[in-house]
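Lab notebook, design round three. We kept the backbone fixed and only want residue identities now. Task for the bench partner: fill in a sequence for the structure below.
Input C-alpha coordinates:
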Protein backbone atom coordinates (compact mmCIF):
# COMPACT_ATOMS: atom_id res chain seq x y z
CA UNK A 1 0.00 0.00 0.00
CA UNK A 2 1.70 3.14 -1.21
CA UNK A 3 -0.76 6.01 -1.38
CA UNK A 4 -2.75 7.37 1.58
CA UNK A 5 -6.09 8.97 0.77
CA UNK A 6 -6.30 12.64 1.86
CA UNK A 7 -10.14 12.52 1.79
CA UNK A 8 -10.36 9.64 4.30
CA UNK A 9 -12.52 10.13 7.44
CA UNK A 10 -13.27 7.61 10.19
CA UNK A 11 -16.88 6.38 10.38
CA UNK A 12 -18.50 4.95 13.50
CA UNK A 13 -19.59 1.31 13.30
CA UNK A 14 -17.41 0.39 10.35
CA UNK A 15 -14.76 -2.27 9.78
CA UNK A 16 -11.73 -2.52 7.52
CA UNK A 17 -11.52 -4.73 4.43
CA UNK A 18 -8.53 -5.51 2.25
CA UNK A 19 -9.60 -5.71 -1.40
CA UNK A 20 -7.34 -7.80 -3.63
CA UNK A 21 -7.34 -8.82 -7.28
CA UNK A 22 -9.26 -12.02 -8.01
CA UNK A 23 -6.79 -13.06 -10.69
CA UNK A 24 -3.34 -12.56 -9.15
CA UNK A 25 -4.28 -12.03 -5.43
CA UNK A 26 -2.39 -8.69 -5.26
CA UNK A 27 -3.61 -6.36 -2.45
CA UNK A 28 -5.02 -3.21 -4.00
CA UNK A 29 -6.99 -1.22 -1.41
CA UNK A 30 -7.62 -0.98 2.34
CA UNK A 31 -11.29 0.05 2.55
CA UNK A 32 -13.58 1.09 5.40
CA UNK A 33 -16.86 -0.83 4.96
CA UNK A 34 -20.08 0.34 6.60
CA UNK A 35 -22.98 -2.06 7.10
CA UNK A 36 -23.33 -5.70 6.24
CA UNK A 37 -23.59 -7.20 2.81
CA UNK A 38 -21.37 -7.58 -0.22
CA UNK A 39 -19.05 -4.90 -1.55
CA UNK A 40 -20.92 -3.43 -4.52
CA UNK A 41 -19.57 0.13 -4.58
CA UNK A 42 -16.37 1.55 -3.12
CA UNK A 43 -16.75 5.15 -1.95
CA UNK A 44 -13.53 7.03 -2.64
CA UNK A 45 -13.66 8.94 0.65
CA UNK A 46 -13.69 5.62 2.59
CA UNK A 47 -10.49 4.28 1.02
CA UNK A 48 -7.71 4.33 3.63
CA UNK A 49 -4.66 3.25 1.60
CA UNK A 50 -4.22 2.02 -1.94
CA UNK A 51 -1.54 0.77 -4.27
CA UNK A 52 -2.98 3.03 -7.01
CA UNK A 53 -2.72 6.82 -7.10
CA UNK A 54 -6.33 7.96 -6.51
CA UNK A 55 -5.59 11.62 -7.28
CA UNK A 56 -5.53 10.77 -10.99
CA UNK A 57 -9.09 10.82 -12.31
CA UNK A 58 -9.13 7.55 -14.23
CA UNK A 59 -12.47 6.09 -15.27
CA UNK A 60 -11.54 2.54 -14.28
CA UNK A 61 -9.79 0.67 -11.46
CA UNK A 62 -7.12 -1.65 -12.84
CA UNK A 63 -4.91 -4.11 -10.98
CA UNK A 64 -1.38 -2.64 -10.90
CA UNK A 65 0.14 -6.14 -11.04
CA UNK A 66 -1.74 -7.89 -13.87
CA UNK A 67 -3.75 -5.04 -15.44
CA UNK A 68 -7.20 -6.65 -15.14
CA UNK A 69 -10.32 -4.43 -14.91
CA UNK A 70 -11.85 -4.50 -11.41
CA UNK A 71 -14.22 -1.51 -11.28
CA UNK A 72 -15.52 1.50 -13.16
CA UNK A 73 -15.80 5.02 -11.73
CA UNK A 74 -19.21 6.70 -11.56
CA UNK A 75 -21.01 9.48 -9.68
CA UNK A 76 -24.01 8.78 -7.46
CA UNK A 77 -26.84 11.15 -8.32
CA UNK A 78 -28.55 11.25 -4.93
CA UNK A 79 -25.37 11.93 -2.91
CA UNK A 80 -23.20 13.56 -5.60
CA UNK A 81 -20.20 11.37 -4.61
CA UNK A 82 -17.64 9.57 -6.72
CA UNK A 83 -17.60 5.79 -6.29
CA UNK A 84 -16.09 2.75 -7.96
CA UNK A 85 -18.76 0.27 -9.07
CA UNK A 86 -17.13 -3.11 -8.49
CA UNK A 87 -17.36 -5.87 -11.10
CA UNK A 88 -18.36 -9.11 -9.42
CA UNK A 89 -15.99 -12.09 -9.34
CA UNK A 90 -12.95 -9.93 -10.23
CA UNK A 91 -11.91 -9.15 -6.64
CA UNK A 92 -11.57 -10.77 -3.21
CA UNK A 93 -12.14 -9.21 0.21
CA UNK A 94 -10.93 -10.14 3.68
CA UNK A 95 -11.55 -8.53 7.05
CA UNK A 96 -8.71 -6.98 9.03
CA UNK A 97 -8.85 -7.28 12.80
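Proposed sequence:
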Amino acid sequence: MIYKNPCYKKIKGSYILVVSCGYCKYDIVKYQKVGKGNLLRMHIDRIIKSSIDLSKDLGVLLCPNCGELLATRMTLKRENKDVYKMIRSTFNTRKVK
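Keep this in mind before ordering anything: The chain has one domain: 3-96.
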